[in-house]
Design goal:
There is one protein chain. The protein has a domain at about 70-85 and about 95-265: Cupredoxins -  blue copper proteins (Immunoglobulin-like), CATH 2.60.40. It is built from four helices and 15 strands. It has helices at about 50-55, 110-115, 200-205, 245-250, and strands at about 1-5, 20, 75-85, 95-100, 100-105, 130, 145-155, 160-165, 180, 185-195, 215, 215-220, 225-230, 235-240, 250-255. The radius of gyration is 22 Å and the shape is globular. It holds the Pfam family Cu-oxidase_2. It is found in: Secreted.
Length: about 290
């Protein structure tokens, strides 16, 4: 087995180009051990995004999947960077990441799950609460101002949700690969592409037969990826980029899944020893940990 890590080109941080080699043996094995040195094939360049893109695009599930045909909620999420005032007395701006022009800010007093359970998902409990929009305010990247807030999108129980993640697609824009991770649910990864998503042509090429099922979908650099899932897990779930620098600077939102019709599909009460974030404590309350 031969492995070599791929990475984005500069100005992104570069790591040494190292190749891993190993032998996988199964026990009991009918074959004989062989100490012959492992010969490495010619590997693609570490910055060869095309090879990586087509490798991911050819992945499928081992068996056919029951992909929901009817979509109840469609979201188009633009991923990019923006500027906000640094509030340090200078005239400089601070660069942040954002989804649909909102840079996510964690609540500081009441957790989102607590506010949802108490039916108090409002600015009285979450001071910077914002409803996450279905699409960005502009179809072009970089032309709309950045807002900061606790971005929340609420969906009904058992809703089929489809999301298209769109990275900046022009070579003159800053773009990066973003692994988008959703807590509490598995995702059907329907397709990916380079450039701007076409809601007619690209939808026709969706894999609705045997798509990969994961909890993380990579939005490729200068491209898009489409996912679909059933919101069947009541609660508050974090949707965020899995790169720490990106999520800590705002590339996230909270998905609220409402209760279902039965006790089994209803969010249970907090445990008796649950420690509240209320009371003026300056805790940064996560969505669902």
């Amino acid at each position: 087995m031969i492995a070599q890590a791929m990475q984005s080109p500069e100005p992104f941080l570069q790591i040494p180009v190292l190749m891993s080699r190993g032998v996988v043996s199964y026990y009991p094995s009918k074959g004989s051990t062989d100490d012959t040195p492992i010969m490495a094939p010619e590997m693609p360049d570490q910055h060869d995004a095309t090879t990586s893109f087509y490798f991911r695009g050819n992945l499928t599930s081992l068996l056919p999947q029951s992909v929901p045909a009817n979509v109840d909620e469609q979201l188009f999420i633009a991923i990019d960077v923006g500027d906000i005032c640094s509030h340090d007395g200078s005239h400089d701006n601070c660069m942040v990441t954002r989804l649909n022009n909102i840079s996510f800010h964690l609540p500081t007093t009441t957790s989102l799950l607590q506010a949802h359970y108490n039916n108090n998902m409002s600015t009285s409990a979450i001071s910077m609460l914002k409803e996450f929009p279905r699409c960005p305010p502009s179809s072009e990247f970089g032309y709309s101002p950045t807002s900061v807030g606790t971005a929340v999108r609420t969906v009904r129980y058992n809703t089929t949700v489809e999301i298209v993640f769109q990275n900046p697609y022009s070579s003159g824009m800053f773009s990066a690969s973003n692994p988008m991770h959703l807590h509490g649910h598995d995702l059907f990864i329907l397709g990916q592409g380079l450039g701007k998503f076409d809601p007619v042509k690209d939808v026709q090429a969706y894999n609705l037969v045997d798509p990969p099922v994961r909890n993380t979908a990579l939005a490729p650099i200068y491209g898009w990826t489409a996912i679909r899932f059933v919101a069947s897990n009541p609660g508050v779930w974090f949707l965020h980029c899995h790169m720490e620098k990106h999520v800590s600077s705002g590339m996230a939102l909270a998905l609220v899944v409402e209760d279902g019709p039965t006790p089994e599909t209803t969010l249970p009460p907090p445990p008796a020893d649950y420690r509240s974030c209320d009371g003026g404590q300056n805790n940064r309350a996560l969505a669902d940990e």
